C-alpha cells in the first residue's frame, strides 16, 4: 500500500516536469508565431494549451485524493501542497504563452511587433524558454542551488521589459497606439511568464528545505 502511495507521489512530480516541457515549447512556438506572423503555429499554441490545463486538473485531482485518503504529514504533506501551487504557476505560464499566440493571430498577416523590436522580444522568449526548461531540471533533481540562481535570468527579462517600454516612449518614432498597446501587453506576458517560473523554483526550495 505504501509502495503505491509513493508511486502516486512520484507521478505528481513527473507530471510537473511534463508541464514544464509543454509550457517551454508553447512559449518558444508563440514567439516564432509572433515574430514571423505564423498563423498555423499560433493556432497550434492556442489549442495546445488544453493539454497543460488537463495535466493540471489531473495532478490536482490526484493530489487532493492523496490528501483525503492518506492524510500525509511532514515532508509528504509539504510535497503535495507545494505541487498544487507549482501546477497553478505552470498552468498560468501556459496561459501566458497562449496570450502571446493570440496577439499573433489577431494581427495576422502582419507581425504585431515592429522589426526594430524583434530582437528584444526574441531574447525575452529565449530567456523564458530557458527558465521553464531549467525549472523542469530543478524539479527533477530537487536542485535547491540551481533554483536559487534563477533570479539572475529573471532580472535579465525584467531589464528587457523596461527597455521595451522605453523604446515605445521614444518621441522620434511615434508608434501607432495599436502597436504600443500590443507590445506593452506582449512585454508584460513575457515578464509574468518568467516570474511564474521563478515562483516554481522558490516553491521547490521550500519543498526541499521547509524554508520560505
CATH topology call: Methane Monooxygenase Hydroxylase, Chain G, domain 1
Using DSSP, what is the number of strands? 0
Average pLDDT number: 93
Secondary-structure element pattern, one letter each = HHHHHHH
Structural class: mainly alpha
Strand content: under 5%
Largest sheet: none
Keywords:
212 residues, mainly alpha, Methane Monooxygenase Hydroxylase, Chain G, domain 1, elongated
How are the elements arranged and paired?
Blueprint lengths: L1 H35 L2 H32 L3 H34 L10 H24 L2 H5 L1 H19 L8 H33 L3
Helix pairs in contact: 1-2, 1-3, 1-4, 2-3, 3-7, 4-6, 4-7, 6-7
Structure commentary:
- The protein has helices at 2-36, 39-70, 74-107, 118-141, 144-148, 150-168, 177-209.
- The chain has one domain: Up-down Bundle (Methane Monooxygenase Hydroxylase, Chain G, domain 1).
- The protein is elongated.
- It starts with a helix and ends with a helix.
- The chain has 212 residues and is mainly α.
- It is built from seven helices and no strands.
- The model has no long low-confidence stretch (mean pLDDT 93).
Short note summarizing the structure:
Helix content is 86%, strand content 0%.
Amino acid at each position: 500500500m505504501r509502495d503505491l502511495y509513493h508511486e502516486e507521489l512520484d507521478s505528481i512530480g513527473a507530471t510537473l516536469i511534463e508541464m514544464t516541457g509543454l509550457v517551454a515549447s508553447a512559449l518558444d512556438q508563440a514567439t516564432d508565431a509572433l515574430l514571423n506572423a505564423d498563423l498555423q503555429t499560433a493556432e497550434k499554441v492556442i489549442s495546445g494549451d488544453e493539454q497543460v490545463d488537463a495535466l493540471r486538473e489531473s495532478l490536482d485531482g490526484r493530489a487532493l485524493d492523496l490528501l483525503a485518503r492518506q492524510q500525509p504529514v511532514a515532508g509528504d504533506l509539504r510535497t503535495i501542497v507545494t505541487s498544487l501551487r507549482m501546477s497553478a504557476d505552470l498552468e498560468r505560464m501556459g496561459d501566458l504563452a497562449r496570450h502571446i499566440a493570440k496577439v499573433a493571430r489577431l494581427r495576422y498577416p502582419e507581425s504585431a511587433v515592429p522589426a526594430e523590436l524583434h530582437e528584444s522580444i526574441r531574447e525575452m522568449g529565449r530567456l523564458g524558454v530557458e527558465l521553464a526548461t531549467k525549472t523542469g531540471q530543478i524539479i527533477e533533481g530537487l536542485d535547491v542551488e540551481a533554483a536559487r540562481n534563477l533570479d539572475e535570468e529573471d532580472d535579465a527579462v525584467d531589464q528587457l521589459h523596461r527597455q521595451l517600454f522605453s523604446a515605445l516612449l521614444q518621441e522620434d518614432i511615434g508608434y501607432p497606439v495599436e502597436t504600443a498597446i500590443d507590445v506593452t501587453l506582449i512585454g508584460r506576458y513575457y515578464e509574468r511568464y518568467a516570474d511564474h517560473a521563478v515562483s516554481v523554483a522558490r516553491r521547490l526550495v521550500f519543498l526541499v528545505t521547509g524554508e520560505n
